[in-house]
Amino acid sequence: MDQSTTIEARIAPITIWKAEAVATLRLALPIVLTQLGWVSMLTTDAIMIGRLGATPLAGATFVLMIFFAVYVFAVGLAMATAGLAAQAYGARRPRQVRRVIRQGLWVMILISIPGIGFMAFTEEMLVLLRQPPEAVEYAGMYMRTLMWSLLPAVAFVVLRNFVAALSRPAVALWVILAAVPINAILDYALIYGHFGLPRLELFGAGIATTIANSLMFLVLLAIALFARPFRRYSILGRFWRADWEQFRQIFRIGLPIAGMMLLESGLFIFAAFMMGWIGTTAVAAHMVAIQVPHITFMVPIGLSQAATVRVGHAVGRGDANAAYRAGWTALIMSLTFMITTSVVILLAADSLAGLFLDGSRKDSIEALALATTLLFYAAIFQAGDGIQAVAAGALRGLNDTAVPMMIAALCYWAIGFTASAVLGFWAGFGAQGIWMGFVLGLTTAAVLLSWRLRALTVRRYIPDLPPEAA
Fold first, then answer.
1. Interhelix angle for 54-90 vs 280-296, to 10°?
2. pLDDT of residue 257
3. Which of 230, 246, 300, 358 is most buried, taking the most CB atoms under 10 A from its CB?
């Protein structure tokens, strides 16, 4: 072998990995921006509610935690449609794509009904959890209107997975970008009583979010039904026809995903109620501090979904090398981004916390100081959070969801929650101790999930595809 051939042999793998990185970024960027658009609506709610004071913000925090728990579980089930649709598209089975999306919408309707019923008892749950009474009234006001946004929000996720599986994620991006200013204007008008509308405060914030989510779903549905290349899939064709095999498949794959996502987010969600046992100030500080990593986390989430699609396409083609190359490429990109954001958070913690609370209000000064301290811990767990999210996404593309769910139970609850409770209350570190538990849980999850991906990489594991049906 001459020298030129040797150089070419070395360059070829680099070129392949570079091409994968470009393809992943091209797919992930619209998904990331779509995720940021969605979370910006809740962040807008938090900012505008925060201007009403620390107590209304504490009430809104409890509501968003309960809503997010239900939402995350439903989205976990919906995420099964991302991998299944991508595999069907990679295998060139358009009818299978339609089956997946149609049954995905069935599942979202089924889950939303009890979910809304559960959220209707928010005030009663908060009383049982011994949360500050002054915040409970605000929570009930907010949830009475916000809970109706659940169905359009989760149905939108199924449609977003559909367009992403066809490598057209930018479509959902444009829809959500149009909804962001609509939500902001409605928030401003209904919370504070502008443009001739009544001042509804938290009640109005829920109305604004529900209207925005409903419009997003209806617009994306219209695009999926009537625009090219989506209309050829006729996703609502024979909509009322039962497809129990596909229905069970979504639950079989989706339940572990939902369980894993709920176990992870549940640690942060329950932490809000633990903060309530400390006091209203701790709850408000937690809400402010969690917004920043919640926003930065949208990039790993986007890369995770891109990894699911890219791995799923490769699985559909039966290409093990491409499947694992896609997973590891997305993981490295996520790690690089999250390390960068850690530096930014450390340098700008004061300014970031100040976006959410009015420092001139006496009831906000203590919350701002504590939020700034908590952001230090957010900077520490950024890298681990990014790794675990993308590793889980790559594993979903391989239909590997049961083991990651068990890893999540171990890391987020046996380790993370236990550490939060012990350090926060028994060791006396308070709110800071609770966030120390986040660091331990997320770091352990990152190690174990990346180890799981490596183990399957070594085995060159590829799941079998289900037979195509009409």
1. 30
2. 82
3. 300
